[in-house]
């Protein structure tokens, strides 16, 4: 899952909790990519819960049989980076099926994310602060219905990796398999919500 799915899962799982809890999970949805190592109270507890949630989403997704099926759809040469490809592709699937999972407009939810996360950006790791600035400035979350945006995002990720990778050229192959990936996403996403709801309540 990439930014849109992480923010949406955090928002869904916050439910009717306090404003602080809701915001903390949303902030953690961003920081999970940028804060490494054990969580030892360097950030507010509700932020660290959000970081834990981000990591748990990643772990469950990476190991899920439906994701493994999606990986097998990709050319063998792409599979080393298939997790990254699918993360961004899943955001596209979520955006295109938004009304199946949320009653709000995607544009309204996107603005909600920026309003929750931007105010504390001076306390984030530098790269996280920079990233939320980019997401909000270009309204990236609202644009994930556009396949061209998916390809641009993959190319951007690929350009930041220190190893040779196919992310700038994988778009056509990924698109060829989009229907099959989307079918699996429709089953995967509710399953994640159900499991994470149980796990978060037990913390």
Automatic annotation (TrEMBL):
One GO MF term attached to the UniProt entry: [acyl-carrier-protein] phosphodiesterase activity
What keywords were assigned to this record?
Answer: Fatty acid biosynthesis, Fatty acid metabolism, Hydrolase, Lipid biosynthesis, Lipid metabolism
Family annotation (Pfam families): ACP_PD
For this protein, the parts annotated as crossing the membrane are none
Single GO biological process annotation from the record:
fatty acid biosynthetic process
Entry annotated with the keyword Glycoprotein: no
- Under what name is this protein listed? DUF479 domain-containing protein
State the organism's lineage: Bacteria, Pseudomonadati, Pseudomonadota, Gammaproteobacteria, Cellvibrionales
